[in-house]
Amino acid sequence: MRIRVPDSKFRIPNCFPGLPICSVWDDLVSAVRENQVIIVSGETGSGKSTQLPKICLAAGRGAYRKIACTQPRRVAAVTVAARVAEELGLHGSRLVGYKIRFRDSTGPETRIKFVTDGMLLAEAQQDPRLREYDTIIVDEAHERSLNIDFLLGILRRLLPARPELKVIITSATMDTAHFRRAFGKVPVIEIAGRGYPVEIRYKPTEQDEESDITTVEKVIFATEEIRGKDPFGDILVFLPTEREILEAVKILRAGCKDEALVLPMYGRLAASDQKRIFRPAPVQKIIVATNIAETSITVPGIKYVIDSGLARIARYSVRSRTKALPITPISRASADQRAGRAGRVQAGVCVRLYSEEDYLNRPQYTLPEIRRSNLAEVILRLYAMNLGPVEGFPFVDAPSPQAVKEGFTTLRELGALDAAGRLTRTGRIMAGLPLDPRISRMILQARHEGALKEVVIIASAMSIQDPRERPAEKESQADQAHNSFKDPSSDLLTFIKIWNAYHRELKAGRSRNRMRKYCRENFLSYNRMQEWKDIHDQIMDIIQESKDFPLAIKTSDHPINRSIHCSVLSGFLGQIALKQEGSRYIAARGREIFLFPGSSLYKKCPKWIVATELVRTSRLFARTAAAIEPEWIEKLAGDLCRHTYSEPHWEKRRGEVMAWERVTLFGLPIVERRIVRYGGVDPAESREIFIRQALVPGELKKKYPFLVHNMELISEAQDLEDRTRRRDIMVDEETLYSLYDSRLRELEKMLFKDRPQRERGARGPEVICNERSLARALRISGSDAPLCLAREDLLRSIPDTDVLVQFPGHIEVSGHRLSLSYRFCPGDETDGVTVKVPSGILATLSPEPFEWLVPGLLQEKITYLLKSLPRQIRKNLVPISRVAENMGKGLKKTEKGLLRSLQEELFRQYGIRIERKMWPSPEDIPPHLLMKFDVLDQNGKVIDSGCDLNRLQETWKRTASIFNQNDPEWLKIKARWEVSGLNLKDLPDIPSSVTGSSGDRKSPVQAFPGLVAEDNSVCIRLFLNQDEAVSETRQGASRLLADYLGKELGYLKRNCTPCGLSQEVYMSFGGKRKLGQSIYAFLCRELLGTWKQIPSRSDLLNRARELEGKVFQQAGPIIQLLKEVFEAHITAKQEIRRLQNTAINRKSCSQILKDLEAELIRLTPPHFPENARLDRLSDLPRYLNALAVRTRRAYVDPMKDRKKASRLEPFLLCLNEAKNPLDAKRTKELTEEIEQFETLIDEYRVSVFAPELGTAISVSPKRLSDAWERLRTLL
């Protein structure tokens, strides 16, 4: 640095005469020489600002380095510099200079340099030791702006490092204790003020604060009142804003014309205009100023002060969580400073436009800005100025740790700081805007979104009280007026509508009175609307003046409303909320808030909102809110969002590991469940999942040769385990994992070996964790051999051959070779062996052969069945394991099934009779001891499955519904076999079944030719169900034989009714005609054949030859037998009628009659003999005669009949029990046993009630009991 030599011609300056500071001039010179820091306290106008730099010169300062004198405002720096230069005389312009933004008047000979405190801060960033200066005067320190507090903190740090540096702190108030605490026991020199009295006059307005009268108008009234009494005394008017100053100046100039000089005074005033304020004027001078004239600048000759009592003071708003710029009442100290301006040169008058009570209720001093600010702004500026962490900065009033923490949280929320606490690019730009950080963030986002105009309107609205008015006596009218502004989706857009509506009127050239009227009609506060415009203009000025603010505007493709809300949201991420019920929301960090009833959103209550204003009354209300979408939150919040991942899994379709992501912000779930790639989240875990869930089970999209090879080996090994029901043959999954893990590592070394060290990790994880990276590795290696496994890698042991043959791959059932599959999964329904059944042969199978399972499982099944028998039977079968072994050796596989065979073998070996119901139900048998059935369609696809073959057959009895009848191959087979218009002579040979297949020939289907009677002809048709084919063939075969024997059957039809039947017989069976039809149908069925299977051509021809010419001859004995039945029926019926005639007076006969009538109907039902059986017809006359005998005897002795009937009742109950499950599919054996048991009961009935008629077989209760025991084993 160049050392400046002292000017030998320079004369030591003296105090400007008449200033209070002159009385302590020498004391101050001595204090400067003897102390590093001094504090000077003196009222405004005492000469501190102009004389202290001269005192420093007198104390020898400024000889080699400059004397810096800071001013809080640019106009003050310029004005005071000019005044000091003037006082220094001829050399003043060379010795004194100033430096403000965009202007520097200093030169090489400058000794005293006036700067704004912001400019000195900027210099401190370039030169932290401030080596340009040997003395620094911090003027107006009592204002305690952030800049002043920052300067004082910097100087506290700098003083120990620069002991030669002198610091002078000045204050216009007596509140200097803070400075003494900060700088230690430094001398405080107080300067007495001038002693001219000032008369205080209070002139509060009559109207309340919501009145239409403005502050400007109040000032005009007060000014005119003063001028009316004294047209010569200069007047200083204090107004809070530049807009109001210009408005007042305009009105006053119009009213005063040439009688007074009206001048504005504010911070941005041009230099030429500033000089006019200090020049003498020939007429009365009226200065209209902001609080700049309060302490910074002393305007000479003022006699009158008009104090509005207001100033625009930056203040942190708890409701909106932003620093607002509201117009607020000043402190008592500031009011006293303003009043003191009137008593500098003569007695003066101060007119306060508020009440004395209001004055006394105001705080003593204005709070330091640091206590009115969000600490986020302080921290941001510290970062931007490189002043170190806030915790270590030597503030005059250190903020609380909680406030600092909240400040950091806010900056992190706004994206000004990253997770490591470093200033981001966004934060650096925000620091360049002297606005609240939230407003700065909103404006930055608005520039990006292309919504700057709208967002500045909203931001300025946040700094004022709601401009809408709602008088108590006019609430409904106000609400109606405000509804025209409301936007149903956002209270923020409501502000824009109000702004636009108001400014449309303003641009239309409306006068002030017309604008007031408009506001009254729409229930808006005119004063607040004006204040809103002021703040809006101020923010726009700040944006335009900021050199760090990016000029390029990015036009967003989104709708403007979305852009507006995204911009606001960027500044209020901590005030989002999620709807719960009604108007209740859960906000960030678990707070409970409610939508304010006056909000535009109250009726709709959207799912997500952002609140820019929170007000606590009875509850915490979101007073100003907007509907938002959660996807906006995630985009704006960035790394503030917390991402958690669950259920990582392999997805074959995508070919990579995926997981469910949950995204939360401050505890709120903005994304509840979203599928994402997991490889970038946790490569190591993704790799493990890739191996376990993709490679080990073979779940890759592409069929890689190595994988096909490995899966074949694994399938073979697993099949061995499933068949033999062991888990010690194949290696476990961990071994498979290790095998693939080691082989993948070799591929990974090859895949990533050429990646530069600086790029590792930047271009994705260096692991193979998805199919894409695997394919790339295989392509680079040129071979998949490293991933091919050997059989030895997979097998721990190999079962013996004699064990494997007990678990065959196929079984033969009813001439069909059916494939088997095995699964070893205990507890699962598919555990065990499964047979694959083509749908075409499903109906032909019976369950019994499948009870035998396979040899390897038979012994276990027998053991389980024996252990399931009742205890009284089991105790005769000990030890069970040996008995089961004996059973297994003695049993031979038959069509009867395992259960029936086991019953017979137990009776044969041990004499134990087992009833069918003693065996456990299928539901109680372990799944692996039951045969499972997979029903296959023509493509080999499983269309149904289960353990119950009967259920499957019932479900798919209409097999045609699942068989593709239009398949070309099947149509060829149908065309070959199906024939129409047949007669017996040209009937072709009919096979019992034919086999067809679908086009792919995977699943052969068995079909059954049948004879079908269609209209007047007989056809051959193919059926997929054998029972259906047999049923249709009975009618078709009868039609063929009937056509062949037409004449003889016609004669039979005319003469089939027995001769000599009484009219009573006809009446009993529906009349003569109906009885004849029934007899003819019965005879045709018996003569033409009751085919139980599909007859061949030769079968039909043989039957035709047997009947040809002999129809009536063969029918004669049957007709005679029918006549006997009819006569016996009439006899029994007459006896029953005779008993009925006497039963009216005999209660004991009523039940007997019911039994007798039921028995008569059972033997000869109304449709008899159409559905009668010829093999039982010969016994019917005897059974009916026995019924007649019983009736006659019951007539004589009813009680005796009841005793005889009781002998039959146990067996009848058994018969009913056997017949009960009629809906179930009964086996042929069971059906035959029931019929035999019923015949024995009929014979026993004859032996009990009419033994003289004799029985066809020997019958007794014991024989009946034995028959029942046999029958029970089948139930």
Helix percentage range: 40-55%
CATH superfamily of the largest domain: P-loop containing nucleotide triphosphate hydrolases
- DSSP E strands, number: 35
Number of H/I helices? 49
Estimated share of beta-strand residues: 15-25%
CATH structural class of the largest domain: Alpha Beta
Average pLDDT works out at 85
Low-confidence stretches: 757-763, 998-1002
Largest sheet geometry:
8 strands, mixed
Ends apart, CA distance between termini:
119 Å
Shape: elongated
Secondary-structure-derived class: alpha/beta
Spatial order of strands in the largest sheet = 4-3-5-2-6-7-1-8
CATH topology of the largest domain: Rossmann fold
Number of domains: 8
Query: Based on the structure given, which CATH architecture of the largest domain is correct?
Result: 3-Layer(aba) Sandwich
* Gyration radius from CA atoms, angstroms: 57 Å
Question: How would you explain this protein's 3D organization?
Answer:
This protein has 1275 residues and is of the alpha/beta class. The protein folds into 8 domains: 20-191, P-loop containing nucleotide triphosphate hydrolases (Rossmann fold, 3-Layer(aba) Sandwich); 200-372, Rossmann fold, CATH 3.40.50; 432-552, no CATH class; 688-794, no CATH class; 808-954, no CATH class; 964-1044, no CATH class; 1060-1196; 1198-1275, no CATH class. The chain is built from 49 helices and 35 strands. The strands form 8 sheets. Strands 4-3-5-2-6-7-1-8 form an 8-stranded mixed sheet, sandwiched between helices. A hairpin with an 8-residue loop joins β33 (994-996) and β34 (1005-1014). α15 packs across α16, α17 (425-431) packs across α18 (437-449) and α47 runs parallel beside α49 (1261-1272). The longest helix is centred in the last third of the chain and has 33 residues, at 1111-1143. It is elongated, with a radius of gyration of 57 Å.
